Amino acid sequence: MRRVPGFVLPVVLGIILITGLLAAQAATDLGSHTMLATHRLLQQRAFEAAEQGLAQVRAQMRSGGVPPASQDLPSPGLPTDSAQVEFATLAVVALPTGFSAGRVVESYHEIRSTGRSARGARVTLVQGLRQLEAQAAP
Amino acid sequence: MSSRACLLAASLLLPAATPALGAAPDCRPARAIELMVRFADQPPQRALLRSSGTGLALEDSRGGAQLWSAGPDAGAFQRFGEMTAGFGESLFAIHLDTDGLHDRLYAGDRTGRLWRFELAAGARPEHWLRGGIWADLGLAEGGRGFIAAPDVALVNLPGTGTRLNVALGSATTGEFPVENRFYFLRDTLAAQLPPQLLTEADLLPLSPLRAPPDISRAGTDEVRGYYLLLGHAQVFAPALTLAGRTHFTVVETAQPLAVHCADGSIPTRPVALSVTILRTADGAATGSNGEEQHDPRDLRRSLPRALPADTRVDVAPSVTGDNGQRRCEAGGEPLPGCMLDTAPRPAGWRREDVD
Predict the structure, then answer these.
(1) Cβ contacts of B31 on chain A, cutoff 8 Å
(2) Number of domains in chain A
(3) Range of A107's domain?
């Protein structure tokens, strides 16, 4: 009886090869996606830390305080996250419309908040603010 | 107490024809105002401007050396023959540009004249002040003048654009009670030399019982200002303008407190005070009870206790709560309907990092 060459083995080997390639590709994609997702998560956390820094300085201003020129504000519950916040007054208008000259001034401030998270993730947000301030009585 | 009742009470306290000859009231020296000035060939410097006799004197703020003076006599650096009444502390200087130097001076004297001077930065002392009497709001027979410093605020008016609003109340400076006023005077930012003289005939009277004057005519025939009748009540302290509303204390007595305060000093005797709040744009009465429920007939809200005659409306030194609101007070008494919003407002946002 003549021996007929089989086709099952090559087919199976082909399937195994293709499956292996697909699995390798999937593993690579998974790794990349995990890395990307982690990066985006950390960027988002840095963004939140920066936003939190802005909010804390705005709250300091609302309660009548003058924020320090530079301060580090840790994010509660996330030891790797924090914001470095810089505060600067850019201009002071001595004659704001509708207010007594010499007794009320309008100041223009800039808050620069750099949020940081793990693996060097960092986001810088800059908020401009204007604020009326009472001048001390002469 | 309504304004009519206040007037009645004031007139009952002292008949108009009777001079007040009680005990001499307490007085305090007039304060100097600090200016940034620059004379020819000199760097900018801080200086103190004060009333001196019937004129003005400018001193170096550190050493006290006299830098400049003005008065009716030939000995002054600048001679103004009409400077015949003291200014006390009715002085106010403002910046109109960004060079850090004061540019204009308003000065009210004790005969009811308001002077306006442009301060010429870099000029020699003999030419530093330019201007003269801007508003003559006194009485022909005298006795009405300015004790309080003017309050100056920038206002945007429909039809006329940006103007300076000069708010100032008068007081009795003679021996007999007189009819006093609170003025809103409109001035331009640009210098006008010589000043175009303003009198009460150029102003519109304000009445708390009527609607505010129609300001729509401002485009063709600009209103130069308003005045509110105060009866025999007086104003000894500068007003405070916040968010387009002018707040001022009114001394509710017809007694001529200032006549006994010599050399431009300021009466401080404890007296009954009230507070008035008017809209700066048109002088309309505004809410003073904190709920905007204001009866215009009740224009002057009495303060609960006697306070020094020179008590002024001030912004409280600290904010209320954490919303950035700072209340107003007069002599420690909180004033409803008067607030300065110091909460920061957004003025731009951007993200600077590069992903």
Answers:
(1) 138
(2) 1
(3) 8-134
Torsion sign, CA atoms B79, B83, B84, B89 = negative
By three-state DSSP, how is residue B323 classified?
A: coil
A1 inside domain: no
Residue A75 one-letter amino acid? S
Rounded to an integer, what is the distance from CA A112 to the centroid of its chain? 13
Question: Which range among A13-22, B297-306, B330-339 has the greatest average pLDDT?
Answer: A13-22
Query: Inter-chain contact A104–B151, Cβ cutoff 8 Å?
Result: no
Residue B218: strand, helix, or coil: helix
pLDDT tens-digit map of B136-161: 999 999 999 999 999 999 998 877 78
Both structure tokens of B134: 């801007």
Q: A134 to chain B, minimum CA–CA distance in Å?
A: 7
Tally the domains of chain B.
1
Q: CA B123 to CA B27: how far, in whole Å?
A: 37
Strand pairing category for B33-37 and B325-330: unpaired
- Under DSSP, is residue B127 helix (H, G, I), strand (E, B) or coil? helix
Structural domain range at position B18: 3-354
| pTM for the full predicted model | 0.84
According to DSSP, the residues that pair with B183 across neighbouring strands are B168, B227
Determine the distance from the C-alpha atom of residue B236 to the mean position of all C-alpha atoms in its chain, rounded to a whole number.
9
